[in-house]
Amino acid sequence: MATSEFQDANKMPHSSQEEFLSYLQHYQLTVPVQVDENGKFLSYTVKHKQSGRWRRDLADPQPLQDPLESRLFYSLSAYGKHFQLNLTLNPHFMSKQFTVEYWGKGGLEWRHNTVDNCHYVGFLQNQYSTSRVALSNCKGLHGVITTEEEQYFIEPLKNMSLTNSNEWNLDEAQQHVIYKMSAIPSPHEHSQEFSCGISDLRAPSPLRAASSDPLSPAPQSELWNSTHRQRRSVSSERFVETLVVADKMMVGYHGRKDIEHYILSVMNIVAKLYRDASLGNVVNIIVTRLIVLTEDQPNLEINHHADKSLDSFCKWQKSILSHHSSGNNIPENGMAHHDNAVLITRYDICTYKNKPCGTLGLASVAGMCEPERSCSINEDIGLGSAFTIAHEIGHNFGMNHDGIGNSCGTKGHETAKLMAAHITANTNPFSWSACSKDYITSFLDSGRGTYEQCRFQYGASSRQCKYGEVCRELWCLSKSNRCVTNSIPAAEGTLCQSGSIDKGWCYQGECVAFGTWPHSVDGGWGPWSTWGECSRTCGGGVSSSMRHCDSPAPSGGGKYCLGERKRYRSCNTDPCSVGSRDFREKQCADFDNMPFRGKY
Hints:
Strand content: 25-35%
Radius of gyration: 25 Å
Distance between the termini: 36 Å
Keywords: Disulfide bond, Extracellular matrix, Glycoprotein, Hydrolase, Metal-binding, Metalloprotease, Protease, Repeat, Secreted, Signal, Zinc
Largest sheet: 10 strands, mixed
GO biological process, one term: extracellular matrix organization
Structural class: alpha+beta
CATH class of the largest domain: Alpha Beta
Organism: Knipowitschia caucasica
Number of helices: 10
């Protein structure tokens, strides 16, 4: 399993909000209020209304959200600044068939599918192109506010007057804590040393990742010399159905009453990070299942040893993966399918040893499309855990650390971002570097992120072969290379098109149009570049042309462009002159002076 760890040089243990606040260099208290679109005061109540709770049901369509609740506006002041939040409900962040399960020693004890629609994304009023906000108002405001100058975390202030209590003060005029990321103490205030690297424990072929640059794209010269046909680079919308597991340490810290809302608040931030246009791809993180472990599980070992815990968790999550469901369609056993599994723990994890250290997360590199490797473990450190989880999912997508085998984050280049090996005051964890964009694009273009549903049905070499009514029937290549179907539709959320819908997603067997994101600007393709140099001087070669998503560039949560970003054409097709050296002979001659098994 090829794994990559994520460490935080600012990490410190804490057992309560009060203790955590004592570690911060500074924080402020603020009282957010609900306002209208023009900033006029409406109410001190900022928590979600219970009337918005609803039960997800296979038979019943999703109830419509109250229009007044689908968009919300809040106002607050802190650090000498005034923040007016413009928020839109994030309804697709959870699967239509989302369930919460509580597991004891004997496995599943009870589950429910009652959901609070209380997770929002948005921006600061009049700053939608330069700010990003991801907040949940389930029990007060939990989330992040990002401006051009700073990043802020906000959460309700727990009632400190209640000894040994995790109760939230839910009275009107509810106080909240707000603090800057830069307020987290620097590593020099702690005696621990922190290092990070990629360990290669066991990497099954063909996705073995070495310790240096595991998935960097091949140079152009190597691409032209390949005997395989070049794969088109197409920007397609992706949906990652996600299982989230919280261990018993999480239950002990957050309590049964608040753990569901807390975890979903964190995952809402994760989903927002993957919608950022800097990723260069459209990726939707969809939570299909939340498992809360109230007791240790017989076949799951979780402790300080991150490597062993990851190995155990990856095997365990595969054992509970439903192979009988098609995407969001839950079979009789009630188990929802997942593409990726995320474990959140309160253990102070460490690579290579069973004792605390600075490691925050560990994941299998490039394992997204392998059921036993599409997984990660993440240490809970508060709302900042969202960055750890997004970082580790990035490793599952084949991303390497910024500055490790690439130029991002190094001197003279752009600042290290979400895939930085360490989070420090100089890191920008709210967007993706150009290197991360290249890694995930290479991974998805390679085909490892496509045709997953066909592979589940017909084996690892299968892929989609017919693109008609995919929402009614999914057609795949069989082992005998025939285009076949078992009359099962594609999973809900699969990208589709119809005569009247240019871009949509499958819902209950039909292709329905995507909704729009208010106040956002979707990206548009710019002009194609001039054709590049031909790879051959004669005898037939290939040249390429690129275009970029910059006319306009996506902003305010807008979508990245869909379609071809690179195209190819034949060139210099005239035969080579008589007596000229054959190009294949020239390629072979390049290796004349390289020994093979001791011989030339």
